[in-house]
Each structure stands twice: as structure tokens, then as C-alpha cells.
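We examine the record.
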Amino acid sequence: MTAGSTTGQQTVRLHAADDVVVALADLPAGPVRLADGTTLTLAAPVPRGHKLAVRSVRSGEPVRKYGQVIGYAATDIEPGNHVHTHNLAYRPVENQVVYGSRRTPTEYVPEDQRATFLGYRRANGRVGTRNYLGIVSSVNCSATVAKLIASRAEPLVAQFPGVDGIVPLTHTGGCGTGGPGHEGFETLRRTLRGYGEHPNFAGFLVIGLGCEVNQVVSLASEWHVPDGVPVHLMTIQELGGTRRTVEEGLRLIEEMLPVAAQARREPVPVSELVLAMECGGSDGYSGITANPALGVAADLVVRHGGTAMFGETPEIYGAEHILLERAVSDEVAQRLVERIRWWERHVEADGSSLDNNPSPGNKAGGLTTILEKSLGAIAKGGTTELCDVVRYGERPRTRGLVYMDTPGYDPVNATGLVAGGATVLCFTTGRGSVFGSRPTPCLKLATNTELYRRMTDDMDLNCGTIADGEETVEEVGQRIFELILATASGQRTRSEEFGFGLEEFVPWQLGATL
């Protein structure tokens, strides 16, 4: 979409092969003029972000948007008809895929011309964008104690301007589960290990009850933290209860604060940045504005030598062929296929369907099937090679574009990406998600101008200028890239100003509760 291309237009067609166009404003019943100069007559109003047909589609035939199948006509559809849940049905699509067939080697920016940001370089070489102390509960039974210590220690942080705060990482698991070797247990441990080793932390308390499955000693023994990052282990039962544990925790925090405050930002190359990407509260604009613009920013991060990572496997379902065709190897492609097949079995065992993913808000915003949602969501992945596919909470094995297998539920997805080492998170939203994460700063990108104006206090950047015809996707992508670097260098996000991130740590819970 080029600058000015949508100025004064009522609809946009995304691909020449499409059967539908997207309304850029609320359209009343009656004539509507398309960009190609033709006129359609709408029998009923079509809300902005929704689809209207530009050609006849017979019942049972595929309907295309983005040049891809987004569903099948449930009834005969005529030009000018509103195309939505009442006449578009989901059916799985079997796309013929040749792994790596559309892979184009990434054109990297020469090293001496690569962008930099101001980050915290830890002793092990990893680079953080924030400088927090963390308090990890090994089990839900120690969660309240962890929060008590954090809340009582927070006033001390004001004495140490170089420390961003104290993050209690509490959750509802850790016991009532199988131990080592069980999927749920290993997923939780991998997530906690990812946070424990995260470069945005300068020190930790690890607090357990004492009798849980997820014991603090074995948990922390898996962590590989750099020199100078203290990790103190505590159990409530051994220390004599809540009061004594809180007192000991406060004493240890007082010891760690001056050490953490010694960290200093320094110029580092973008190759040390790990960008996470997420979309939530999506609408009909997501795949037109914010997601492709974020894809441009992701391409820039990768071209400058960094890592861009995204997930939400239920929300790429039906569009995974776009990534498979860009895989650097058959092995990488097969890892993604295996995770897709796992999800098919997972939802089938639950008696559900991946097409249940589009939420009521998604549908109100113009999205209809999971195929349509996925095709818009996958635009975040940009155009570079798919270099790696990792499990939930797992660190990538290489730089470049990385896919992580996560659920689509926003806080669970974000928790996995941060555990995987993400140091900045970009979150696109069309309906208006309010979200933030700690220790990783979260930038919220509005897909449309109306949302940005209505929720300005929560949005960091307006991508609706693309649909308004004021900027190109590439221009907004460049602005996102520059905002990422500013945020990585310490500029606070809207969600940080509000204090988000204390309730958004939500590890993926798998397996039986015993």
C-alpha cells in the first residue's frame, strides 16, 4: 500500500485475485465506488474493517483475501454482499508446500553501518534493555510471600535510580503435577529458567514453600546466570513462616539493590536485540496496517543482525505454508509442521476446533475465520528466512527470524517469548488491548486511527495512518524500528508508565492437576 493510495477511498483490495475488498469506513446501504472506478450497490450496511464481495461466489466455493483462501461460501454470494460469519464458513485448507521454495537469502546491513542502542551488557555477553530485580515463586504456595516482599521493598528502589524496579514472578503451578519428564512440569521449569537467565534482571530471590514438587534448589541449579548476578534461595517452612521469610527477603533485597544499581548502559549493536511480536484484540485492519508494518520492522532488526521472534500457533493455522516456504532447512520446516500437528490433536482431544480462536471482538472488528485471522497475523513475520522453530519458553539457537510454539492467549504467549529471551515486545491491536510485561518493555501499536484517538494513553504508535493514506507500510515500519531502538535504550512505554506487568506473567499450564 503506497502513501496516499487510500486517501478518500472507501475500500481497499489487497490482492488482484481477491473476491472481497475491505471497508475503510462504515458504509451505508447503497452505491459504493471502488478504487478501480467501478461501483457496487450494497444491500445492507457494512461496518469498517469488514469485507464486501466484488464478484459472485457460488455456495461451497472458496473466498479469497490476501490472494489466499479465507473460507468457503456458505450461501451464494453476490457483488456488494457483506461477507462475514453469516455467509462464510470455515473448512481446513490443504496447501501444497515445498519447504524453502520462497526462501530468499537475507540481505544484511554491513556491520560497520548497523544501528545501535544503549543496553546493559551482562558478564556473559547477553544484553538487557532494563535493569530489574526479580522474585520468583517456585510454587503458588509462595506467591503471596513473594508479592509481600516486592511491595514492601519497592519504596527502597527510589534510592537507586539505576534500578527499574522489583518484579514478583508468581504463578498458579509448581505442585499437584508430575515431576521431571512430565510435559507440564518441564514447560514451567523451562519458563522459569528463561526468566532467571534473562538479561533484563540483575538479581533474584527464589522462594518456595518447602514441600512442593518444584523444589527451589533443583530449579535454580538449572539456571546459568552471569557472574555478578546474585540468586538467593529461600523456603518458607525452613525460615519459620511468612513473617521471617519476608524479613529475610527484605534484607537480601537491600543487599542486592546497590549492586544492581552499578549497571550502566553502553552502545551495543542491534545484533544483541531480541524482538518479540504479538497481536491481540485483532480487527480487519490488523493484516493491512500494523502487522505488515511490524513485519517491516522485524525485517530491519534481522537485517541489522538481530533476532525477531513470534508465536501464537493457533493464530498462524492455515497460513503456516507462508513460513514453511521460507524455512532455511527441511529440519526447521518439519519442526513447525510437528507443532501444527500437535495442536490439531490437542484441540481434537478437547472437543474443540482451531476455528474457535477468533474471539467475539475479532469478529466484531471484521475477522471471520481462523484462516483470515492467521493470514493477517503472520504478516508480523516479515519476509526474511525462517531460521529456527523453538518450544515454548526456549531460547533460539540462532539469530534471525524465529518461530516459537505458543498458545494464542496473549499473556501466555508473551510469557513464553520473554522466557525465550525477548528484550523488547511489540504488541499490535485493533480492538484496544491493554497489556504490558516485565521485565521486557511492551510497545502497543494501534491498527487504526479511531482506536489510537480513543485510547491514546495506552497506544505507543498509530499504524492507522497507512489505511488513512498518509504513510506507506514501509514508512510506518521504519518508525516502529526507531521506536524499538529508543525503547531498548530506556525510553519508557505507555504500559510501563501505567505499571503493567505484575499480573501478566502467565506460564502455559499443560497436563493433569493431581
User: Anything to note?
Assistant: The chain has a mean pLDDT of 95. The first strand starts at residue 11 and ends at 12. Residues 330-349 form the longest helix (20 residues).
